[in-house]
């Protein structure tokens, strides 16, 4: 059982805002992150897949293929976008790194389960909002 | 003559957009950076000051003081903000890293010239938009 | 179950020295780290908490709050200090990164257990002594 | 139970090539990584050992000793070498990071099991091929 | 006068070897870097251009365009290649970072001089062989 | 004219303290950096030398040799030391990064001038006290 990790990045705007709350409540809960005119980040996403090495290729999964999946399923949809306004799969959620990471998991988990190499499974997603703040998710309910 | 550098960071939203141009012209010139709903970055700013060492303190300038100036004059005004909408000193300019860096220079240069230590001058500002894209300015006309 | 990580830093002096041993035994065991006049590091501490996302806020825990706890309970007590001489909660221990990390755990674990959000638990502490040497602790006995 | 990590680096050439396959099949599977004249990387290796802290020394294992083992058993044999041609313990395998990491595990696991401190065990090896591509192995079959 | 920097990376094999010297002389001069079976690096290249900001676009040069030039003129020709064997413009030179950097300068300087924006000039090239070893060139004879 | 840079690191303790001043004056000037029991840093030093490439070797200077000079002249004397107490060439100065950098310059400049390759000169020394605070010196009076 081996684990292999690929890192990609994207730049996006967002704000933390719960529309059910007053502006004051949003400010007291989210602080400057609730600035109505948005702020943004250079996000980084690390995807870990696990499984058995294919003895023919010596690889668990071709990283170029994993990178391609990450780009098509995630990066192309969030890069240079507003996470609150422009991303269908994030609609209606508060765009905390926690919530965003779980949505990325749902998309990539389904995609990776459909790969030919049935041994290969999504193990972990780590999303860096900044180098000092990041979230990890293992698909645990 | 010694040079001393302090690095700070801020997170902001922006877009590249020239209101005199059509939306198509903006898109052809700025690409995804012109996305109308904004995107954003974890910016980093490095400020270099130069001058003679004060023989009493062994310092050119107290870095805590330089850091305080950077925070009060720059970071507090741009962090968790929209560079196009929320920052008075950026009003009316296209928020490329080039233009933003020059505005930072103008503010910090005036402030540092007003310091007690008359030997200390602003030498360089470097602004990272991403770890792969950055701008340097030395106050050259 | 989501994991969220906050990183802070501090600068401190220390030495590795067991007062029950001779100076020679300390030198043979700890090498240059036992230099009697101290040496020091730019330490980094990463704290991981885990739990369920609060559906109202979309957050496990407000990172500003976690950062505040780390600063008040740890950073303010070790930053620009001598770990062997200036830190009450490290008294009497050899200040290896292993021992220091466990002390940080004890303090933060108790504090985090007392938070309102009863779902939120300390999961892991990682302390970097240098970018090449670091320790991880999960509270395992 | 504490975990301690040491990071080392080495620079090496390699190519991904299965001699049982045609050149075309190698190219379609491995792409530019199969370039017959080799390419190379600045590899980084992080070794995590786990165990109980020795109460006399406050250490799980002296990092200088762990570093020495990594240098003698691994770095000296792969640094400034061709992984496909120059390294006896990699002979006959495809030099994917997956395969290389498992070979490093086998060597270091045996060596660490032979240490005096019987509590200390190899826990994890992480090998970075680039800052964006890396593999983790825990000795799981 | 503003300076803007773009960073790209490539992975390549090479060795330091002067065919006019004996193998022993090569070993005594270049050490392990002369290993006949090659070694390799994750190279990074930072290109700085300087000039006046275009007031219409707020940019010195579109970084996407600068990145495209770097990829077409340099990266595509050296990435996943052997610098001694596979790169026509490096033929006959010893592939030290010094020599490689100057060749990159010659190619990019000519290309950038041919850009529409006649104000924009190549200012500096920095090439990292490792994070600890790098070369800078300003086109000075 | 080419510039080549080598980076090394060392870990040291120090405090900022002017013995001619009262303890209060030291505290008001240097803040927590004047803590009497010391603090410390993971310092990094980057040395840039400049000159003409030797056409025989393709090198300005063998980086292994530059690294050896840095280690023998600087690192061995400051690593795991107290900059205020243990380093003869720093005696009597306030150990600000400014002062330390100039002392490093004086030692390395003299040493490099005595090298065989008379074309090779020290150009710049950069010393990082932390990733956020660093000093640069070019030998300018």
Walk me through this protein's architecture.
The structure is a homohexamer of 141-residue chains. Chain A is 29% helix and 30% strand. With 141 residues, chain A is α+β, with helices and mostly antiparallel strands. The first copy, chain A, has one domain: Tetrahydropterin Synthase, Chain A (2-Layer Sandwich), CATH 3.30.479.10. A five-stranded mixed sheet of chain A has the order 3-1-2-4-5. In chain A, helix 2 crosses helix 3. Chain A starts with a strand and ends with a strand. Chains in contact: A-B, A-C, A-D, B-E, B-F, C-D, C-F, D-E, E-F. Chains A and B meet through strand 1, strand 2 and strand 3 of A and strand 1, strand 2 and strand 3 of B.
Fraction of residues of chain A in helices? Answer: 25-40%
Strand order of the largest sheet of chain A: 3-1-2-4-5
Largest sheet of chain A: 5 strands, mixed
Q: What name goes with the CATH superfamily of chain A?
A: 6-pyruvoyl tetrahydropterin synthase/QueD
| Spatial separation of the terminal alpha carbons of chain A | 23 Å
Which fold does the CATH topology of chain A refer to?
Tetrahydropterin Synthase, Chain A
Keywords:
homohexamer, 141 residues, alpha+beta, Tetrahydropterin Synthase, Chain A, five-stranded mixed beta sheet, elongated
Provide the fold topology.
The structure is a homohexamer of 141-residue chains.
Chain A: E1 2-14, H1 23-30, E2 39-51, H2 63-78, E3 81-82, H3 97-113, E4 121-130, E5 133-137
Parallel strand pairs in A: 1-3
Antiparallel strand pairs in A: 1-2, 2-4, 4-5
Helix pairs in contact in A: 2-3
């Amino acid at each position: 059982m081996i684990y292999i990790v690929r890192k990609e990045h994207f730049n996006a705007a967002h704000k933390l805002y719960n529309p059910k709350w007053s502006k004051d409540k949003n400010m007291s809960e989210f602080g400057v992150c609730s600035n109505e005119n948005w702020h943004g980040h250079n996000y980084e996403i690390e995807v870990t897949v696990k499984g058995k090495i294919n003895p023919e290729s010596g690889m668990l999964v071709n990283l170029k293929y994993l990178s391609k999946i990450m780009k098509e399923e995630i990066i192309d949809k969030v890069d240079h976008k507003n996470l609150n306004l422009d991303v269908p799969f994030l609609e209606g959620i508060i765009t905390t790194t926690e919530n965003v990471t779980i949505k990325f998991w749902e998309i990539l988990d389904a995609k990776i389960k459909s790969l030919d190499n049935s041994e290969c499974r999504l193990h972990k997603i780590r999303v860096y909002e900044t180098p000092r703040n990041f979230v990890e998710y293992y698909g645990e309910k």
